């Protein structure tokens, strides 16, 4: 075992602070340039994963380093054939095993073969797969001299082969349970994700990853008609799609068993000419791309008469819904004339999702044609309470498991009406709650969501938005739990902890994940704004800063409207203005109170800090586990800790920004000099603490280029932005607050 810089593993490790950990961990990690993470992820599948010291347990068999064959039927289709080649490559590069690929005209004798891995469909392998029921189901049968994988269809066989990989990855060796005979039924007809790299960034190495994590489909690309017809106002700023890129993506993804969902972008007006144009658009898209599996009709782009604002009267919003649903019906009718199997997924995301809107949301379901598949937002709007103050999830979040009150009502109504299926948009490894993180290490909380999705018998899931998918252990946990007969949660987590941090570290790692999962349940911040999304990248503003971009404050154009339209705040133009807490320097509005609503700043910050404290309890054991990791695991283990450290800093910075602004807003209303001085002392302390957090965040972001990235914006913060924040914080500390004291004789 390698001991990193003097830390020894022990049953009771000394308490290690964040700064102590950083002093030892940061020198061991290389710097990464922004946008470097795709290059690193590209090598994920080809990593050497075998632990040379691993020994099979008494109930395990071993696939030897050579002498075995991988056998397919000679007429195997491209999905199984590609999966077999991928599995062969995995064995060679990850496990240092060479197997030959053989083809046979028949697999009927599969049960008599030896020194072989046999892959096919149940139809091709008599006596195997008799209990398989549907698409993606598979059976694995292991004997000392043979491994058989049979799928309900070719995709089932593919997922079975990749499940063998998943089992070997957990053991870091080519070991499989001896004499296992397991049938696994897919729990979902569809599991789709967006790219975690960018708008139309789907390289082959990335497509190779997706089925290994259980995905069968992708959503590409957001807000663009696949045939290149431009979106109409107000979405005419969206990139136009290149149809040839879509054709190429369909072709390449099909090799890996991945199908495509696309949006349809259209501005509905309800008149006859408009309806005729919609029918023509749908016909053109479907005849041009007959391979596309389904279409998402999202209000953001497939829209009627502007935004369905919550300030409309109940009669107005219901009228809006009827007109929008008429467009859904027209598009669905036209699509099903060509191919009745095409999935049409209306998604009413922007219609009021607060808890009190359940009847309205059921009304939406009532307007859908029965041959559509409602796409329901799983968590948004879920009500929750902190110290008697009630709020609701304002965007995709994981502090609440879900479903929301309105999602529950919609799922039930869709079942009552006899919908052909029900799909949901439900995050399962990351969320907009921390939208600049590749994943969120809250496995116990995520697992509760997986169980809830299964309980509600959801048929399909869109599992990410523009933060997309990047390989991570939570998504690995999700893949296991997307089929029946998953191993127990404790077994999976212990295996992952041992694999990623080293033997005898499992208890510490699981303790950390438990604390992290407890922490997220406390967090009250759920919006797509500053807070947990970008607090690290947001400075504290004591005085109105000098502009860093053009302004129109002396123009005939209204400055505030210009900032809303451009999404740029010229005083901090590094991220969309919605993710910066910028004060009202006229002091008419308390920006901190406005942000925390419907909670008070006191209660909001109380629970942010309770969550951060809970994170710290977990980090104590997480740091110890990482610093005791064997040499071959140090790089990954240290990065896991740094990511969790950054989550904690995001919570503390969120609270600091709100407290600082709350104090700044009331500063000039204080009459008593002593109290004035105490408030300034507290603000000074907050700035000093934020400087320390920002410096730590800067060093972390220099070593993990995934952090701060979310391709809708590219980066919300980079090392450069954090350096600029530090300059402003130091200006506040060293010049602005002292000058204020002098002006007020404090």
> Could you tell me the mean pLDDT?
95
Please, how many domains?
A: 3
User: Mind telling me the CATH class of the largest domain?
Assistant: Alpha Beta
The shape, in one word, is globular
Query: What is the CATH homology-level superfamily of the largest domain?
Result: Glycosidases
CATH architecture of the largest domain: Alpha-Beta Barrel
What's the N-to-C terminus distance? 58 Å
Q: How much strand content do the residues show?
A: 5-15%
Widest β-sheet, arrangement of strands? 15-13-11-10-9-20-19-16
**What Rg is obtained from the alpha carbons, in whole angstroms?**
27 Å
Label the structural class: alpha/beta
Mind describing the biggest β-sheet? 8 strands, parallel
Low-confidence stretches: 1-11
Note down, in words, how this protein is organized.
The model is unreliable at 1-11 (pLDDT under 50). By secondary structure, this protein is of the alpha/beta class. Helix content is 43%, strand content 12%. The protein is globular and about 95 Å long. The chain has 3 domains: 60-184, Chitobiase/beta-hexosaminidase domain 2-like (Chitobiase, domain 2, 2-Layer Sandwich); 190-486, Alpha-Beta Barrel (TIM Barrel); 518-743, no CATH class. It is built from 21 helices and 22 strands.
Which descriptors would you attach to this protein?
single chain, 746 residues, alpha/beta, Chitobiase, domain 2, 3 domains
